[in-house]
Amino acid sequence: MSKVLLTGFGPWGSEKYNPSAEIALGFNNVVIGGYRVVGVVLPVSYRRVISDLPEILVKIKPDIALHIGLAPKSCEVRVERVAINLMYSEKGDVDGFKPVDEPIVPGGPVAYFATLPTRRIVERLKEEGIPAVLSYSAGTFLCNCAMYVSLHTIAAQRLETISGFIHIPYIPQQAVGKSAPSMCLHLSRKAVEIAIKESIDYLKQRESSKNR
Amino acid sequence: MSKVLLTGFGPWGSEKYNPSAEIALGFNNVVIGGYRVVGVVLPVSYRRVISDLPEILVKIKPDIALHIGLAPKSCEVRVERVAINLMYSEKGDVDGFKPVDEPIVPGGPVAYFATLPTRRIVERLKEEGIPAVLSYSAGTFLCNCAMYVSLHTIAAQRLETISGFIHIPYIPQQAVGKSAPSMCLHLSRKAVEIAIKESIDYLKQRESSKNR
Amino acid sequence: MSKVLLTGFGPWGSEKYNPSAEIALGFNNVVIGGYRVVGVVLPVSYRRVISDLPEILVKIKPDIALHIGLAPKSCEVRVERVAINLMYSEKGDVDGFKPVDEPIVPGGPVAYFATLPTRRIVERLKEEGIPAVLSYSAGTFLCNCAMYVSLHTIAAQRLETISGFIHIPYIPQQAVGKSAPSMCLHLSRKAVEIAIKESIDYLKQRESSKNR
Amino acid sequence: MSKVLLTGFGPWGSEKYNPSAEIALGFNNVVIGGYRVVGVVLPVSYRRVISDLPEILVKIKPDIALHIGLAPKSCEVRVERVAINLMYSEKGDVDGFKPVDEPIVPGGPVAYFATLPTRRIVERLKEEGIPAVLSYSAGTFLCNCAMYVSLHTIAAQRLETISGFIHIPYIPQQAVGKSAPSMCLHLSRKAVEIAIKESIDYLKQRESSKNR
Questions:
Q1: What percent of chain D has pLDDT over 90?
Q2: What's the CA dihedral at D184, D185, D188, D193 to 10 degrees?
């Protein structure tokens, strides 16, 4: 059966709750458009994402890898287009690792573009009434790191997986007292489902155009 | 039976949909904590709010008057504390009226404070996981006008009504393509219900402390 | 000689430098349009502003009272139109006083409108290339308090002073590391000078129209 | 004599004035730290930047190429770290060209990192009291295009030039009526001078460490 790897992130620092983890686990084993979702929660650890995510990808060999994470202060779903080979964190990850401008993969390419149909996903989200935007920077923390590691592993291992990253806003409860925008969990979850469906449609169209 | 007047606003300008109208109508005839809600949609017209709202208040004599409206660009529920005796609108209302610094009530007081338990409402909303904040300006358009007219009518007619205004954000569909924050309608609706409940509790506590 | 009282504020909390103090002192004894400026720095203390500002006003009997203060996070000059009879501060003033919804003047009016020609000042600032906007809330901290005390004193003492408040942004040095907007001190200073000149012109026009 | 190529951009669309052009021309022929600045204004045209900028670089062979442009809505100097091989513009450039996700250089790398000492420049700007931040996306319009073309030309032609891009805010006059942040021209100009000086220091330190 065709597979979708859906990763979210666990808590870190002052963010004790991460909606991306709840969404990833909630879709685990769910079948969308004939594809089975494998939901995984990644730790907010550079080291472990770098070591574990390649193993997960090689083992599962998903058709689609959708990585999601939390974007505090964002008012909309952000579909990321670029992952860069750089780590920087002032506050550090859960291991206390505070890299300053280090490469994720020494000698790796400067950047990868997402291979998911990012523009189509954003158009579709907007049609469905979900505020969404294309983004050209996933930052320098774990979100960018997971996206880079995923795309690099796929390239290095010559997997056929299409991959990308989506940032979701705070849920309302998290935004209380922060004067920050938020989005209800059910809406972020629907956005993830739409992104998966659009990616499946894209794969099917690509397949059928090859066969013509 | 005790009554709550709940007013929302109709559409205006480029905002073809106003969630405050849907919420006001949705609560019409609903009983909350033993109070019957009278839901009314006001037109986005200075003239008609100034002429009609006093009649509505005098006729219904509600215990509580909660006026709600849309605050584009807000990421949270804004509980207004102050209404000022001033009208200004560059784009104009639905009648094309574009007042420049005119008083709503010539000779009326500069301002009124809301008489709803505004701080309690905000505290309660936050406890319930709804982003909310006290606000000290309802602007100079219809929202401020309705709030001023309501409080002025209550003062002039010596009604016992407690009154105030709550701004709600865009719903997500409205925020699409605007890079603006939003809040799901069900959450704004819940915020309005909580504000009504807190106001009822406040009235009951005030009553019971009078009787002691 | 006609006089302008120009007040700024001293430092408070984490804001060790307050550009409003530097501007107020810088204009002290300067003559603008035939009016002598009396520059005074007020402490960020509710109690002392409430006790000292009325004495200053009664003693100096200025024709114009322009109060200025710092608005962190503002990107433009904010000309305030409304002062409300309310004190609230979570962090407290320099005396550690943390009022929760207390009146500045018990029994005083809910609010005063600025009596400076606020709209003219904003128009003029914009013509001169200085980003400026009318504002309808000066907050609930010392800026609002000084504005309220000034307007209330003038009303209670039947002074002929016209009065109002202008918020200025951070200077660039203060904004470093805060992702906050700022404005060069010389531009904020020019804004204050323009506000004084417009106020003088307004007084002269009012005088000459009376004499016609 | 060692050289610095400093490029700004001309006007486009509703932005009739571009401070980056004024700064680039203002530094033309100025000598900074023993390096002569060649100031050039690029047109806001994808086609012409792609055709002309490589010629300029090859002809001048500058030691340092600093490209600057306007970032509306930014409140601080943004030192860009990444240029991506992508063009997208909804409104189009001055030629009316509206690319949708086209590569700048077909077959070129996904991205280049700036080779200027970006972190040092930001640190230095902040020490000098100028709000500044590292940025990981220069957008998809001409600023990103010029940065990509510069870094790609340098790589392809094996030039020794170090290169990068700095975004500057609106000047105050441009921000009037837009509720947008701004920075005085003299401050943005000083930021550019500091960036050049830091880059020169970096080259000198690199040179002296090579010689050890």
A1: 95
A2: -140
Q: Which residues of B touch A133 (CB under 8 A)?
A: 179
Contact B179 A76 (CB under 8 A): yes
Cα Rg of chain C, angstroms: 16
Contacts with B126 from chain C: Cβ below 8 Å: none
Q: What is the pLDDT of residue A13?
A: 86
User: CA C37 to CA C65: how far, in whole Å?
Assistant: 10
Q: What is the least distance, in Å, from the CA of C86 to any CA of chain B?
A: 10
Eight-state DSSP code of residue D140:
S
SS3 D120: helix
HSE, side-chain direction, 13 A CA sphere, residue B23: 31
Amino acid identity at B94:
V
Look at residue C27 in the predicted model and tell me its pLDDT: 98
Number of domains in chain B: 1
Burial bucket for residue A33 (CB in 10 Å: 0-12, 13-18, 19+): middle
D107 in contact with A, Cβ within 8 Å: no
Domain range for C104: 3-211
Q: What is the pLDDT of residue A7?
A: 98
- CATH label of the domain that carries residue A99: 3.40.630.20
Backbone region of residue B29 per phi and psi (left: phi > 0; alpha: psi in -120 to 50; beta: other values): left
| Predicted confidence band of residue C30 (pLDDT cuts 50, 70, 90) | very high
Nearest to B176 among A131, A175, A178 (CB): A131
Distance CA D16, CA D174 (A): 9
Average pLDDT of the segment spanning D24-36: 98
Spatial contact of D37 and D4, defined as CB atoms under 8 Å apart: yes
* A66 Ramachandran zone, left/alpha/beta (phi>0; psi -120 to 50): beta
Indicate the SS3 state at residue B132.
strand
Do residues C59 and C27 touch, judged by C-beta distance below 8 A? no
Is pLDDT at C49 greater than 90 in this prediction? yes
Chain C interface test: which of B85, B88, B115, B136 (most C C-beta within 10 Å):
B136
Model pLDDT for residues C72-119, shown as the tens digit of each residue? 999 999 999 999 999 999 999 999 999 999 999 999 999 999 999 999
B154 touches chain C (CB under 8 A): no
Quick check: A75 and B176 CB within 8 A? no
Report whether A68 contacts A24 (CB < 8 A): yes
Q: Give chain A positions within 8 Å (CB) of D137.
A: 82, 135-137
Stretch B169-176: mean pLDDT, rounded? 97
Q: Which of B76, B143, B145, B152 is catalytic?
A: B143
**Pairwise CA distance, residues A38 & A30, whole Å:** 8
Instruction: Note the pTM of the prediction, 2 decimals.
Output: 0.96
pLDDT tens by residue, A165-190: 999 999 999 999 999 999 999 999 99
State the nearest Cα–Cα gap between C9 and chain D, in angstroms.
Answer: 22
Tokens linked to B84: 């000022």
Predicted confidence (pLDDT) per residue in B43-79, tens digit: 999 999 999 999 999 999 999 999 999 999 999 999 9
In three-state form (DSSP H/G/I as H, E/B as E, the rest C), the secondary structure along chain A is: CCEEEEEEECCECCECCCHHHHHHHHCCCCEECCEEEEEEEECCCHHHHHHHHHHHHHHHCCCEEEEEEECCCCCCEEEECEEECCEECCCCCCCCCCCEEECCCCCCCCEEECCCCHHHHHHHHHHCCCCEEEECCCCCCHHHHHHHHHHHHHHHCCCCCEEEEEEECCCHHHHCCCCCCECCHHHHHHHHHHHHHHHHHHHHHHHHHHHC
User: Which residue among D82, D101, D119 sits closest to A111, beta carbon to beta carbon?
Assistant: D82
- Contact between residue C198 and residue C121 where contact means Cβ atoms under 8 Å apart: yes
How close D186 comes to chain C (CA, Å)?
10
In chain D, which residue's Cα lies nearest the Cα of A103?
Answer: D113
CA distance D109 to D200: 27
